[in-house]
Structures are given as structure tokens and as C-alpha cells.
Amino acid sequence: MPDTKPFLAATFTESRMNEQTLQALHSSIQALGHQVPRLLQEHPDEGDFSSAFAELADPIMEFADRAGEDASEYAIQAIDELLIRAGKMDPAHRQT
User: Fold this and answer.
1) What is the value of pTM for the model shown?
2) In principle, which of 15, 20, 26, 95 could form an S-S bond with 70, CB 3.0–4.6 Å?
């Protein structure tokens, strides 16, 4: 997964999300991204994959929700990108 932190930091420079929150979200989402190939292999059924992915993504979203609207928006977009790259989400359904 390419490093998107410089782009994301620039995107949210003027937001309320601080550098520490951005770093925590970035690290968590990057770790989730590293788990996607294993999840795809272990859960070839669409429903099983979705459940396993959600189990890992939900705590990230809960943290982002507590951190504020900017953090939630960032997390949603980054997690959507993981699903798109994995072929599990149509790019047309990406939340913006």
C-alpha cells in the first residue's frame, strides 16, 4: 500500500484533526491494509470477508468518530480506498 500520509497531512492541515490523531489513524489504517491479503485468502466468501474486515475496521472508525468529524471523514475515505484496491468496493460507491 503506498504511503498516503504526506497527501493526507496536507489535506487536513487546516482541519481540527491534530498530527497525533492523524498519525494514529494512519498507522491503524496502514496495519489494516496489511491484513487485507490475509483476509481475502482466509475469507473467500463475500459475507465472511465483510464480517472479518468490519471486525478490524470498526475499532478504527470508533476512534475516528471520537476524534471528530475530520478524523471520521479521513478514516472513511482511507478504508473505502482499501476496499476498492481489494476489489471489494466499486469506486462509484466511494464516500466523499
Assistant:
1) 0.79
2) 15
